[in-house]
Amino acid sequence: MLATPETLQQEIEDGLRRPGRNLTEHPVLAMLDRGELTRAQVQGLLTQMYVHVREVTRWIAASFAACPYPAIRDMIFENLLEEQIGYYSKTKAHAELLRDCVLAAGVSAEALAQAQPLSETAALIDYCELTATQRHWLIGLEGLGIALETQAPIFFGKIGRALIKSYGMDEEGAKFFLLHVSVDEDHGDVNWQILQEHATSEALQQDLKEAIFRTAERWWGLLDTWQHF
Predict the structure, then answer these.
(1) Considering the domain boundaries, does residue 71 fall inside one?
(2) Which residue in 39, 163, 182, 194 has a CA-CA distance of 20 to 30 Å to 73?
(3) Averaged pLDDT, 29-43
(4) How far is residue 147's CA from residue 105's CA, in Å, rounded to a whole number?
(5) Is residue 4 part of a domain?
(6) What's the CA gap between 96 and 98, in Å, rounded?
(7) Whether the predicted pLDDT of 127 surpasses 90
(8) Residue 88 in contact with residue 78, Cβ under 8 Å?
(9) φ and ψ at 2, to 5 degrees?
């Protein structure tokens, strides 16, 4: 049955609170806060996050190209401007901000340039690539947007504060994470608005929920990669 916009949002929010999807409650966040990860484990986790984030603007660009609505393309383009060059925050590309963080954690520029995704990270990258380039434009846009950006203000903020508190990083080094506390709050509101207005068939609603939940589950897997180091 076709859900109302309000019911659809509630079903997605409830689904994202389930174990393995609620990124704000991933165990690694508390471990980082308590300083329980080794330096190598922090470096490994941040490197895997960078390997993923450096691909994100390609998927935003794919959503821009696929979206048939000029007003929504404007919003996607504004997001792309911020992600690609830090236009609105007056910083730099978000991938470059994360690169700065990984370097501040002690990873060499050479090692970072040669870093490859572990299986969990590759699963997330491959799924994002699929949804952005092969699925309905709304699935490509919101599979990534709602799964991550509605949770990032909390879990990215926790990572940034833990890096400062427990691992001696300054705010400049942790800027990637601290910046997303405010930036993704704005994006999250826009994502919900777009979903509510354009998820107008039962099949599309079901596909959207599946994509959002699967993306969150794969992000959970990426956060597990610290265990490899």
Answers:
(1) yes
(2) 182
(3) 98
(4) 27
(5) no
(6) 5
(7) yes
(8) yes
(9) -65, 125
Q: Give a yes or no: residue 5 inside a domain.
A: no
- For residue 149, give the CATH number of its domain: 1.20.910.10
**Which domain covers residue 205, as residue numbers?**
15-228
pTM, two decimals, is 0.95
Sequence letter at residue 54: R
179: tokens are 């910046």
Domain count, the chain: 1
Distance CA 21, CA 218 (A): 8
Residue count of the chain: 229
